[in-house]
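Notebook p. 47: complex prediction with aspartic acid.
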Amino acid sequence: MPTLVMKFGGNTLGTTSALEQALRIVLEQAENWEHVLLVVSALDGVTDMLLAAAQRARIADQRGYRRIAANLRSRHLALVEQLALEAPASQTLQAEIDQLISALHDNCVAIAQNLHDELLPRESDAVVAIGERLSAQIVAALLRQRGARAAAVDGAEVIITDSAHGNAEPDLALTARRVDAVLQPLLQRGMIPVVTGFIGATAAGAITTLGRGGSDYSASILSALLSVRELWIWTDVDGMMSADPRQLPDALNIPRLGYQEAADLAYFGARILHARMILPLLERSLPLRIKNVFEPGAPGTLVAPSPVGAPPTLKAVTSVEGLALRRLTGGSLTGVTRLISAALQDTLGARSDVMLVSQSPNSSFLCLVIPTSIGSDGGKRLRRALQAKMTQFPEKLPWALESVALVTAIGNRLNAAPALLADAMRALGDIEIYALALGASHCSLTFALPLQQRRRALLQLHQLIIKSG
Ligand code: ASP
Ligand code: MG
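Predicted complex, structure tokens below:
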């Protein structure tokens, strides 16, 4: 029985015009598909506000977190008012919003009572989860008002994860059981479940989150476990682009990408998709479409198995901050890699991350990708953790730390296209290259460069992509 999962990002829910579009799209697709399931993000900017509230609470700034809670309350209520929900549904929804805001308040009080130097990821997870809970209630109520049988579902009831708070990893076997127990019965009854993205819970019931941008990952896990026909991700741009349109306004839509290309693009910095969401889709050849709510008829981007024999082409360029370690000796890297994994463990939970390594007899260069899923201050946190580890083990001190840019060109079968690789290197002109690597997927060519050359490198590689496209 064909089922469609649609994920709506915060930028498609944050304003009345976008939200109206989103609701219209859901009602239309509910006619076209046997079953429809929705995954929703928090309204645009809400996760950041919640994190700010948790930070205020950490320093026991009661006025600060109360002010943020009041802003969040009025923002959500105003949205509902503008969409003219009728009584009694409007009273019920207002009561639900108030209940969630008071849960936010209680969580902040609890944080303020715990005197830690840093906010614990466990504490911030409980606070940020409120954003998605608010939006799921609103979307479900508005769909019901328009005649659909929709029910808000808490992702914490369904997605069971490990305990790496802030960047947790779902346990597919445990989650599959919850999908059968919680979601299947709703779908069988012809309902539209509106599931909160981004959040899960440990088997013991503690709230976790899947990393920034994690609603995509929730949608991909649920799509895989429900064996759906397709997953559509709705956003406010025309799908995946050849570069970040905020950085390079002449960026073009990419009509089609292979799974590996999409995964590498997300991994090396494109924020439009959560990097870990591709694997569950790839394993099942499940098609993913990324579409613009304001242009629902436009094709957007299709991520699907690469057509056999497609000639190698460069399709996109992306960048992410990297943390580089250098020393003026060669020799074994085991000591420092152990320090790095320990620092990553402290900052990100258990996950290790890809390193570019280059070595010669008298110098070593090692560069880590800072995943976008750990949030905007992730680089700083990782750097602090690494510095602390190095002071703890003074014999490892000769390493100097520096921030670098990792600029990546994405394309298919780059291993079979030496001329394309040469063009990409030539496009960089006189920009100094610290290190470079061809991804094991053969879909990415990554350059470690001085941070201040990031924009120029993006621009020059993008010109090449447009010219050859
Ligand atoms: N609301 C979360 C975030 O801002 C998750 C998501 O939007 O995917 O990171
Ligand atoms: Mg996103």
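Notes: The chain has two domains: 3-236, 314-468. The two ends are 39 Å apart (CA to CA).
Next step: compare against the earlier run before touching the bench.
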